[in-house]
Amino acid sequence: MPTGVHANxxxxxxxxxxxxxxxxxxxIVLGLLAPRVRLVEDDLMxxxxxxxxxxxxxxxxxxxxxxxxxxxxxGSMVKAFGKDEVIHLYEMRxxxxxxxxxxxxxxxxxxALKQLKGIQAGHDTAIQKQDPRxxxxxxxxxxxxxxxQCGNAFLSQSIxxxxxRTHAIRFGALMSRERxxxxxxxxxxxxxxxxxxxxxxxxxxxxxHLVPPRDHYLKAQESLSx
Length: 226
Description:
This protein is mainly alpha-helical. The protein is built from 10 helices and 3 strands, in the order H-E-H-H-E-E-H-H-H-H-H-H-H. Strand 2 and strand 3 form a beta hairpin.
């Protein structure tokens, strides 16, 4: 298992069910919990040293945001998506994120740009150290602050909600060294464009940033059906 996958786990002592849910959410993105994998309450109780009701609360949180699905006589499983669901979810993400980029004031303020660069420095370090959880968290932080610049809290929250729904689609993508470096490169290109104030380029970069995880999932799905 890659260095750092479990090293920076959130422990349930921090905030109970929410901490467990956050760690399992990262597990899904990192490919440690693939689509259709069953989450067994007893196993999770042992892993996190938590009571059953806390584990059930964590699973309910993940189910409410579309990361898990509950099946009769099976229990909770990581959500698996059909081809049309994947395409439609990413169409929504593209619409929302492109609209946010249209609303951002360009060039971006020096203060906001400084904050984004600071977060990206942490992302660069996490990639250098091969810290998957650090990569995921700094990536989340980068995009959360970026989309907040649109000035519409409802739009930025919708973007975050749809991004979370696609965690099970993005599974394993962050574990690819090639994808890590490509994502890093794209982040720095976004920072350059935000400073230059080039609207069309900003939108095209944002949309292109969504494509690799989507296509990776669809390709994997096709190979399973052959």
